[in-house]
């Protein structure tokens, strides 16, 4: 069948997948980087040490200062230090926080980024940046922040704790879900979204069973790559808007927030996104995909209620106000009351449902 008319912009992505960390040295050389600064969170020191060993003398410093949601104060400080080091490129090592800080630096300095991702958030495949200033997370798109090269080595994620593995995998699935109903979706994006979600849904239970199983880590990373590429070329909708407000204003953990909210937005948008429902029924199996995803989540080690990660009922009104005051594109019109009901369900871990007319029980 002839697809509906579409346009698609391919991003210049250079990806080296599953060949270990050795190709990183050639990527650094290829980009002419002589004075690289490694950007990471304080956590994954062994991975940073391995990268430093591989890249050798071209590393002039390590800024292990990344934290969630990219606070502007951290960006200011790191721009100063990278200038003092006379850096000519960044190697972002870790998850979305490390890559996010490198992007914020690149936005100011114009220096190239090479990404070595070790979570499944997918930020390495997007030109999307985010910076939090005074409790408001601003996001934007700029080709200057798109990593020039990405080196995926599944072995680097074997020490990623399973709860973070699961949550960041769900974060990636959220990119796929929203790509399937984005206003600028296309058959190419939908292929990547379906395959990315499939790979993650298959791999995450196996990662939980054996975090050191390389094929499972590899399949999860492959899914993350595809889902990140979907986010990189499509417009974000209600789900990402909700998570940006919950993360930026209430400092909730990014990946867990995505994971908990996703089945609720999926159910809410389902009546207005038939193609998405068909695609995800194929991915998650028979039945309603929001219920299948919610059941998958309940079988994995992750919280399923926003109350469990520090959100409270008194904050729902502020989120509903912000989400509807500057809305993202969405297939279904969104009212403040819709957001309230959706968040009340997510708050207590109640089952997702497409209708927001039904009363929400106060307990799961
Ligand atoms: P994260 O980067 O904050 O990492 C989570 C935790 O895992 C950290 O404590 C980190 O130190 C640890 N960790 C990472 N790799 C590890 C490893 N190999 N071994 C052991 N520990 C390891 O989490 P995340 O979910 O990847 O990223 C969240 C951030 O990414 C948010 O700020 C979000 O807004 C951003 N994000 C941006 C995009 C985009 O396209 N711009 C996409 C997705 C996420």
TrEMBL record:
The keyword Transcription regulation does not apply. GO terms for molecular function: alcohol dehydrogenase (NAD+) activity; maleylacetate reductase activity; metal ion binding. Keywords: NAD, Oxidoreductase, Plasmid. InterPro entries: ADH_Fe/GldA, ADH_Fe_C, Alcohol_dehydrogenase_Fe, MAR. Gene3D superfamilies: 3.40.50.1970, Dehydroquinate synthase-like - alpha domain. It comes from the Bacteria. Pfam families: ADH_Fe_C, Fe-ADH. This is Maleylacetate reductase. Residues 166-346 form the Fe-containing alcohol dehydrogenase-like C-terminal domain. CDD domains: MAR (cd08177). Residues 12-154 form the Alcohol dehydrogenase iron-type/glycerol dehydrogenase GldA domain. Its EC number is 1.3.1.32. It is an enzyme of class 1 (oxidoreductase).
